[in-house]
Each structure stands twice: as C-alpha cells, then as structure tokens.
Amino acid sequence: RLHATDVTSSSFRLAWPKLLSQETGYYSLEYAPRAQPARKRTLQVSGDQTSLVLSDLAPETTYEVALIPESNVHYFPTQSTRVTTLAEEISPVQVLISESGPHSFQVSWAPVLDSVATYQVLYGPLPGNSAKVLEVDGRQNSTVVEHLAPNTTYLVTVTAVYRSGKEKSLSAKACTQKGEQG
C-alpha cells in the first residue's frame, strides 16, 4: 500500500511495495492539492524505486496522491493515498521591548500563530544565570515583566512552544531605567 512518512510543512516521503522492476515498467506519480485538482503534477518514477520525497509543498494542505504502475507485464491497480502537510512552524521573528521603567518592561512578539500552544518568556539579568520564566497563552503577543532591578540589562528570550512539541526561540536585550534618586 502506498503510504506517507516523514511529513513536514513542505514535504513528505512516499513509500510503496515493490510491484515493478526496472525491466518491467515504471510508475506515474500524480499529486495535487485536494482543493485545487487542476494543479496536478505528474512525475515519472523508475520501476526499481519504492520511495520518493515530494517537496516544495504548501503547508497545512491535503494532497491527493496516486501511484500508477505502468507495467508491460501485469496490470496493477492504481494505488492512492491522501496526505496532509503540517502547519508551518515559524520562529518568532520580532521581539520588542517597550514601556521600560525601573522595575518592569513590556515584551511583545510577532507573528502570533495558530500552531503555537504557549509562549515561554525567559528573562534574567546580564551577566548572570538567575533566569525566570513566564508562561503566556499562545493567543497572546505580549506580556509585562515585573519586579526587576533598576538600571540593569536583562536578556529576554521568547520561545514558541508548538502543538507538535517543537520549540523555536528568539532573544532580545532590555534595560530597566535608573531608579528614582532618593
């Protein structure tokens, strides 16, 4: 049976049982997005192959795939399968620090993606290794970090935790204001 493995947002590997050999024929492989059958593409695959990677695919798209054994010896029925690519996993591309005061600042990031379950905002003074973590809902794109020391440089890392379990991070530096002169 034709089936797919190693599915990503832009590719997947197709595998099938050995039906032909190089002498007895070749395969025609047809694939198209289910929603746009007119965009069908056809590949010719050597009869001795039993797998192939399709790439340059659209993310979060269901593809209809048909493998047609073109044999000069036997008739083989067409094998077909349906494969859905994963959502594209983009790391946060911007981390912005704003509204900086002596004891707090706001961290915001973009883009906000449906495929993100939560964001983790890790922050700690530089130099140093006493970082703290804030968990932020995946639908939010900013949070306020409080209880900070004045006149201090902080390293802020925003990590997108995807529903698939993957993580992508981006860091920025932030400085708190000097405290009030008492």
UniProtKB/TrEMBL annotation:
PANTHER family: FIBRONECTIN TYPE-III DOMAIN-CONTAINING PROTEIN, TENASCIN. SMART domains: FN3. Gene3D superfamilies: Immunoglobulins. InterPro entries: ECM_Regulatory_Proteins, FN3_dom, FN3_sf, Ig-like_fold. It comes from the Eukaryota. The gene is Vwa1. It is found in: Secreted, Extracellular space. One of its GO terms (cellular component) is extracellular region. Keywords: Glycoprotein, Repeat, Secreted, Signal. This is VWA1 protein. It comes from Leiothrix lutea (Red-billed leiothrix). Residues 1-88, 91-179 form the Fibronectin type-III domain.
